[in-house]
Amino acid sequence: GENVEQHPSTLSVQEGDSAVIKCTYSDSASNYFPWYKQELGKRPQLIIDIRSNVGEKKDQRIAVTLNKTAKHFSLHITETQPEDSAVYFCAAPHTNAGKSTFGDGTTLTVKP
Amino acid sequence: ETGVTQTPRHLVMGMTNKKSLKCEQHLGHNAMYWYKQSAKKPLELMFVYNFKEQTENNSVPSRFSPECPNSSHLFLHLHTLQPEDSALYLCASSQTGAGYTFGSGTRLTVV
């Protein structure tokens, strides 16, 4: 099955700085890599995703990069703001199994 | 609501009680999931249903019993739970191979 490792488990940055969270996966056939943001007391929400036919995808201040050879993908947040403070989860699918394995999450704190 | 609705939002139950959690999605998704979220394991898969057929039971104790009567509804029946089962139970739905939409969760406390 798929094994997903996420690092770091906690990350504290100053407002305006960049933040990077990295995930590695084990199933080389995986082809879809989403990132979720969970604010305190709320549900996880999909914020960006990437498919294996591209290496990078951007949406305003957030971007995801994928290295299929090394089997890792990363979330990049630029110009961080206090409202970016949340727990971020990566996920990778089990091929043909209709389910995903999630990383253990990264708690991001953006200090004003 | 974002399209996945869970009820109740909070539930306190004794160890001898029987209760059910309900999840409903109106997004036309073909897959539905139950996840358990706790401090010990942030997002732990419990059950997967594809086109209302169970395709995954992630070694979940039999005191948790899922039911999927159709592709829009998912239940989790609970009986004789233990205090360590206290957690946030999240339902999600998706199209196969796409991102999940989560419900708001049911905060369960077993006393």
What does this structure look like?
The complex is a heterodimer of chains A (112) and B (111). With 112 residues, chain A is mostly beta strands. In chain A, 0% of the residues lie in helices and 58% in strands. Chain A has strands at 4-7, 10-14, 19-25, 32-38, 45-51, 56-59, 62-67, 72-77, 86-94, 99-102, 106-111. In chain A, strand 4 and strand 5 (45-51) form a beta hairpin. The radius of gyration of chain A is 13 Å and the shape is globular. The model of chain A has no long low-confidence stretch (mean pLDDT 93). In chain B, strands 2, 4, 5, 6, 9, 10 and 11 form a seven-stranded mixed β-sheet that branches. Chain B has a four-stranded antiparallel β-sheet with strand order 1-3-8-7, with no helix packed on it.
User: What proportion of the residues of chain B form beta strands (DSSP E)?
Assistant: over 45%
Radius of gyration of chain A: 13 Å
> Assembly type of the shown chains?
heterodimer
Extract low-pLDDT stretches of chain A.
none
Secondary-structure class of chain A: mainly beta
Which stretches of chain B of 5+ consecutive residues score pLDDT under 50? none
Give me the number of helical elements of chain B.
Answer: 0
Largest sheet of chain A, in brief, is: 6 strands, mixed
Proportion of helical residues of chain A = under 10%
SSE series of chain A: EEEEEEEEEEE
Distance between the first and last residues' Cα of chain B? 30 Å
**What integer is the average pLDDT of chain A?**
93
Helix fraction bin of chain B: under 10%
Specify which chain pair forms the largest interface.
A-B, 22 and 22 residues
